[in-house]
Amino acid sequence: MLEHIGDVKRPIIKNGSICFPCHSLESIRNGHKKIPLDNVSSFQASKLGKAISCHRCHMPRIGRDKYGYSWMDHSLFGIQQELPQVVIFHEGVEKTEIEKFSADTGQWLQGNLPVLNLAETFPNEHPTLNVIRLAREIKESVKVARGGNHFSMGLETKAVSDNSLKLKFSTLNRKISHDFPSSLFANITEVWFELEVTDAAGRKIYFSGFSKDDLTHRLGRIEIDKWGQPITPADSLKYVEIINKKFLRPGIKYFETYSIPIGQDARFPLKAQYRLMYRRYSNDFAVWFSDGAIQSFPARVVAQKEFVIAKNI
Fold it and tell me: Are 215 and 229 in contact (CB under 8 A)?
């Protein structure tokens, strides 16, 4: 135990550099092509990345052992949260544990997972030591990893005419200290914006969701082959080019625009549900990884907000 605590205090843990060899990897494929990953450079450039280390977010303190102590959760949130369905379950982990991890993941992605702070780690500790721990927490800005939505959404502009509705939404990455989405390999994680517009009578007049072919409202880089088609995980060596390099960068607003046809019978005010959706592993990856045992992984809502749109703007 004490040896492990000593390891955690080492600089390579505290500054996150233990994660960098893989997460700053440049994959050499097709003989000469290099595919740079974006995790580390964006993390190092962000203000949050200078204040906290990787494990403060990806290994949060979310529970206590039977002695009342709290330790960092080693499930690695954001990295392998869907894999227990395939791997750990077959190694004998109880289904209830998998279901709890899945539920915790949904809360973690939205920034709503209750996390213990460092001062609460040892409940019977001397008050002075708790004050010291709390001061360290404030210095390291751990509040970034403790609750509160990672993203904020806004409706920047809206214009209504007799037969069309034009909307411009913004999304701000408030608390993720690297570009989002981020993955070791492209075409595995899927992130997109979803928009649903209904009128005052409850009728759906517009919906835009996930599409493999239309990348307009998709985030993340897409690797393609020489024919311009997205490659599959099994064909990663066929990489030729990267397209659709769109990310939510720390502290920078990202914009999406929509032009929506509306009928004369649409009743105002309209309601627009805007969502940021996240699927850790694509369906192609699910089938390939599980050898067909799993056809898809769940799509999770990372952020959402409802906007009311009056006709006279």
Answer: no
Distances in Å between the Cα of 128 and the Cα atoms of 53, 132, 133 are 25, 6, 9
pLDDT digits (tens, 9 = 90+) for 128-148: 555 555 555 545 544 444 456
Burial of 158 (0-12, 13-18, 19+ CB in 10 A): middle
Task: Give the whole-angstrom CA distance, residue 142 versus residue 177.
Answer: 12
Angle value at C-alpha 153, between 152 and 156, nearest 5 degrees: 135
Note whether 61 and 72 are within 8 A (CB).
yes
Joined tokens for residue 58: 């990806």
Query: Residue type for 240, please?
Result: V
The 10 Å Cβ neighbour count of residue 209 is 13
CB 58 within 8 A of CB 77: yes
Which tokens in the block code for residue 262? 């509306």
Task: Judge residue 131's burial from the number of C-beta atoms within 10 Å of its C-beta, 0-12 exposed, 13-18 middle, 19 or more buried.
Answer: exposed
With contact defined as beta carbons under 8 Å apart, do 216 and 309 qualify?
Answer: no
Buried b (16+ CB within 10 A) or exposed e, 133-151: beeebeebebebbbeebbb
As a whole number of Å, the end-to-end CA separation of the chain is 63
pTM given for the model: 0.82
Q: What is the pLDDT of residues 30-70, one digit of tens each?
A: 444 555 555 677 787 787 777 777 877 888 888 777 777 77
| Residue carrying structure tokens 């494990």 | 55
173, containing H or E segment:
strand 164-173
Question: Residues 77-84: contacts with CB within 8 Å, 24+ apart?
Answer: 77/104, 77/105, 77/108, 78/108, 78/109, 81/105, 81/280, 82/280, 82/281, 82/297, 82/298
Please report where in the chains the tokens 């550099």 appear, as a residue.
17
Task: Give the largest CA-CA distance in the chain.
Answer: 71
Check if the beta carbon of residue 241 is closer than 8 Å to that of residue 34: no
